[in-house]
Design goal:
It is built from 20 helices and seven strands. Helix 9 packs across helix 10 and helix 10 runs parallel beside helix 12.
């Protein structure tokens, strides 16, 4: 009776779907496994993205004993059992879910075992570990971000489950339509656990067709089992991305009614995550310095939406969308940083001027580092003329301010005043 997502957990590193920045050939976790030099780590990221799968695969690839505990519900005595096993049989890989809820007594018990390496801890959390996990644990672990799976990752995992006759659904003759597959790959926003469990529910709750004895899973069946409606039924499976694209372009084009229409479609599909991410991007990419306060209010609206959830989340989000549409627009900030990044990528950069180099170490003075630096706060108006760019980029301009709105107009005046004085 174990769910499909549990049964399909990878047994080896090479079987992991997604997270190739960590487990791909030559990447950090793959190197640890190949060298059998494991170190304790914390994996953080959204639910269903493979944190437990990575831990299971590490243990399977290295042949170490593997134990799973939950920091919130399992006791210190459970940790003592794992430590005793490690003492008797050697290294144990311990997957500790919800590690951000580890109490101090449990933490104090674990620390010496992590120091010795008898327990290789793989902590999993959806919280930011730099905020939610104690410094004592953080200092003894490596921290890696686990990212939401892409649609192609999810599709690969679905195909694996449909083909696997031992742990998957391979013994069932399942016909999954392309529209149903597309919805499965997109509707859970990278949560593979939810995807596979919905697929299993659909397969086992749908009677075979008496004409061909196949289990036909169409879009309506998958919508019911996921409890999420598809945005539209399109043959190419691009509707999700098309609606998000239209949403941003409508706000960029200052059309409030169109933007609200696409917001409604996304919310009706239950896609609060994409709405929030896209609004944050729009606020800084398309409105930017023309109205910085709008970006701050967008962040507040998204925070409120996340706290109250749907359907009430529609209210602060509608406020944000309308304000962003009506607001003056400017893409000067993204254009500026992209121009600077392009210079760096092309190798168009030089040495940091000696006056700006770090002078807080012995011997810096002899090298001439920081000796002629002028501290702006020691001068009238807290400003003094000196060179900050590398000499080969002297007078380079990345930021080209616009006059769309009184705020960036004021920024432009001050920027040009400072630039003229610098020259």
């Amino acid at each position: 009776m174990k769910p499909l997502a549990y049964r399909m957990r990878p047994q080896k590193i090479e079987d992991i779907v997604g997270q190739q920045h960590l487990v791909g050939p030559g990447k950090i976790i793959d190197r640890m496994v190949q060298a059998r030099l494991l170190s304790s780590m914390i994996l953080y990221g959204p639910p269903g993205t493979g944190k437990t799968s990575i831990a299971s695969a590490i243990a399977g690839s290295t042949k170490y004993a593997f134990r799973t505990l939950n920091a919130a519900t399992d006791s210190k005595k459970d940790l003592e059992v794992v430590a005793q096993e490690a003492k008797m049989s050697g290294t144990v890989v311990l997957m500790l879910d919800e590690i951000h809820r580890l109490t101090k007594p449990k933490q104090d018990f674990l620390l010496p075992h992590l120091e010795k390496g008898s327990i290789i801890l793989i902590g999993a959390t959806t919280e930011n570990p730099y905020i939610s996990i104690s410094p004592a644990i953080r200092s003894r672990t490596q921290i890696y971000e686990v990212k939401p799976l892409t649609a192609s990752d999810i599709k690969q995992a679905i195909n694996n489950a449909l083909a696997d006759s031992t742990n998957g659904l391979g013994k069932m003759d399942i016909d999954l339509t392309s529209a149903a597959m597309s919805h499965l790959t997109q509707a859970t926003y990278g949560d593979l656990r939810s995807t596979l469990n919905a697929l299993e529910l659909a397969a086992k709750s749908t009677a075979p067709d008496p004409n061909d004895n196949k289990i036909h899973l169409d879009l309506s069946v998958i919508e019911e089992c996921l409890q999420k409606k598809a945005l539209v039924q399109d043959k190419n499976g691009d509707a999700h991305y098309d609606v998000i694209s239209a949403f941003q372009k409508s706000i960029r084009g200052s059309d409030s009614d169109a933007a609200l229409h696409y917001l409604a479609r996304l919310l009706e599909a239950g896609d609060l995550i994409s709405v929030n991410r896209r609004l944050l991007t729009i606020a800084y990419e398309d409105i930017g310095l023309a109205n910085p306060a709008a970006a701050a209010r967008t962040v507040s609206a998204i925070t409120a939406a996340e706290k109250i959830g749907l359907p009430e989340a529609r209210i602060p989000l509608a406020n944000a969308v309308i304000e962003l549409c009506i607001s003056p627009k400017s893409n000067s900030a993204i254009s500026a940083i992209d121009a600077a990044i392009e210079d760096v990528r092309q190798g168009n950069y030089g040495d940091v001027p000696d006056t700006l180099k770090d002078a807080h170490y012995q011997g810096a003075k002899e090298l001439g580092h920081g000796t002629d630096y002028k501290f702006p706060h020691d001068f009238p108006h807290d400003w003094v003329r000196q060179n900050y760019l590398p000499s080969k980029l002297k007078n380079k301009q990345y930021y080209h301010p616009k006059e769309n709105g009184r705020i960036e107009t004021a920024f432009k005046q001050q920027y040009e005043l400072l630039r003229k004085a610098q020259k």
